[in-house]
Please model this.
Amino acid sequence: MNSNLFIYNTLSRTKELFEPLKPPFVGMYVCGPTVYGDPHLGHARPAITFDLVFRYLKHLGYKVRYIRNITDVGHLENDEDEGEDKIAKKARVEQLEPMEVAQYYSDRYFLFMDKMNVSRPSIEPRASGHIIEQILMTQKILDAGFAYVVNGSVYFDVNKYNEKYGYGRLSGRKIEDMVSNTRKLEGQDEKMNSVDFALWKKAQPEHIMRWPSPWSDGFPGWHLECSAMSTKYLGEQFDIHGGGLDLLFPHHESEIAQSTAATGKASVKYWMHNNMITIEGQKMGKSLGNFITLDEFFTGNHKSLTQAYSPMTIRFFILQAQYRSTLDFSNEALQAAEKGLKKLFAGIDTLSKLVPSVYLKIEDRGQRTDKDFHSPSSIIHPLLQGCYNAMNDDFNSPVVIANLFEAVRIINSVYDKKESISAEDLEEMKNLFNTFVFEILGLKEEKTDSGNELVDGLMETILSLRQRARENKDWPASDQIRGDLEKMKITVKDTKDGAVWNID
RNA sequence: GGUAUCGUGGCCGAGUGGCUAGGCAGAGGUCUGCAAAACCUCGUACAGCGGUUCGACUCCGCUCGAUACCUCCA
Model:
């Protein structure tokens, strides 16, 4: 557990050695989805990024409590007077109960995350289930003197907070600049200062989602849920807080302010931010209307998509970029990922068929030179070490994958009898794939109908007929069978051990 | 305008002060009845201009360009 894991901390803009506050326990909080729309590719990135973090920390032996919230209330439409809750607005349009909408899209979110093999977090709290905690936190901030009440709404006093603790440290903003640069919005007259934000908003009569509070019937402000729920489940101070880069300001900045104002100390040790997925160089997002939902990816049902892409292809595509880089979507890039993933799993399949060579190597007597290229310490072990080094360097999954492809190259060479492998190497190789492909990267094979007894039996019959044709050098018949199967998406390959087939 | 990040070969995408990323696509070769797969070889990328240095794609400055945030957004 005494690892050399380095994490890029947005707070310091450097990679820092990861040292949990209370080892072996690790507390991690990640901003989850607002459930008022179908999950799109952008939602997949943080989910997979922090799943990778979750999986790796567990692999290192930490006991991780991972919280990812569901925002089913709390984000204001804007900061204006009539600021209405997004969930409520959508609900009115569709004439549905707000919670029905939230439930529907929550279910959709879970469904698609499961398909991409994203682990379920330890706790997935809902904002609507933590109104009391949010009210209590608002009260605490009021008591500390960093908030004020106007007409039943409660606002955070950013200026006062700034004087004592400094506001803007995460995002590198100065409050003076912000005051002069904040756009003039309608109906800001309640706030003492334009940079102040709402902790509690009084609900207008038409506002559906509302709860009683000491100040008014209303609803919590849009940064409050994360502060309240992270504190509830992880304590006043915890290790990692993650989320999309687009949440850095003002959301995370305000979270820091709220928690610090309430408790007098900084709550988060490591701030992690995943970068955006872009499409034609632009952020894929709701407001731009250029997003593609996960459902559309999986079905191929979208005008920008030339084909469907499987959940694992999406996962692999995301893991092929480091989480802090922007990732540009294109059909070409996705197809490259699809083929690469196929090659990886073909390699794993081949690995299970390998037999170790039995000859006694000269280096087994002790002396080792650079030419001893078949001992564990000289070919497989460096790859394993390379994977750990990459993960320890701020979760550099693309480098892990590069190491895995090198391993696949070795597997194929051994299978082609161009290289040999010792029993120890073979075991280490299997360990490498089990650990990194399945456990840490969380990839899994998407098997189709293979394994179905009926299909297997039919295929055996068909291929034995084709084999007879081949033995008779009846190439037209042989090729026709292969061609007909190809039309049914069944690929037949002739190897020296006979024909093998698989369904695409 | 402010803040931040970034500009790598046909595409995606790592990385580094002097030493191979990797995947996809492309070219040639081996194997194969053919095909597929696999393996081998190849292309001399690091926006531009200066500076530091024995040496920079990597450090510094400037220019150009891109993106994100400053309003809900993963």
